[in-house]
Amino acid sequence: MSDATVKKLTMNKKLQKSNAGCSTQHAVHRTLYANGFTLIEIIIAMAMSLIVVLVVGILLVSGQRGWARTYSFANSKSQLNALTTTISFGTYGRKSNRMDYNIYEINGEHFARVLPENNPEEVVTGQAVEFHYWDTQLDSAIMNTSITGTAYALFYLEGNRLMLDTGTYPPGGVDAGGNRLDGLGVATIVLANNVSALEFSHTSRDMAGDGKGCVRMKMTITDPNDNTQTTVTAATLMRNVWP
Hints:
Elements: H1 3-35, H2 39-74, H3 77-94, E1 96-107, E2 110-113, E3 123-126, E4 128-133, E5 151-158, E6 161-168, E7 187-192, E8 195-203, E9 214-222, E10 229-237
Antiparallel strand pairs: 1-2, 1-4, 3-8, 4-5, 5-6, 6-7, 8-9, 9-10
């Protein structure tokens, strides 16, 4: 083999090695480029993360505000008054004598028993109700037809307040002249303030005004701060019958 041929073969081998090295470097660069992130991709990922964080933040703030509004509403004075009234009305009503209770219409300071106008069975309404019940153990001393209770509870509207009187029966909460009795032995508490409307009602069973033993109440409390109204509706069914 001539010297020229040997030199040519040697040069070809060097060129092949050089080209192989360049190909390897390009492959490495391509691999590094494929496994990395571009600046645009990083910006897009950051923007998407910020959107997720923003949505979660909005949900947390909205939830906290809703909980605060619910808590404030549930613990407002109007709601507490409504709860106290409902509990008291139901407690006294359930243990009362359904054969001996009165609904009154209030005119100034005068209490007038509400009577049906046309029919024995008629829905009548008033601003006060007086329940009669027994607050002692039943024994032979009171088991007669003339004793229909030993205590009374009188719910009535006074100005814009719902009041509750409790005392002994007889004489009860209202005398024969329609005057509310107070003084010794009578306990008076305020059940609700800012009462803008109050109605007690029942269905009569005769023209004397006797009822069937279920009294309904509808009361509206108006908050003086924002004029929001809370409507309370309740009914109590008297369980005791005597005589």
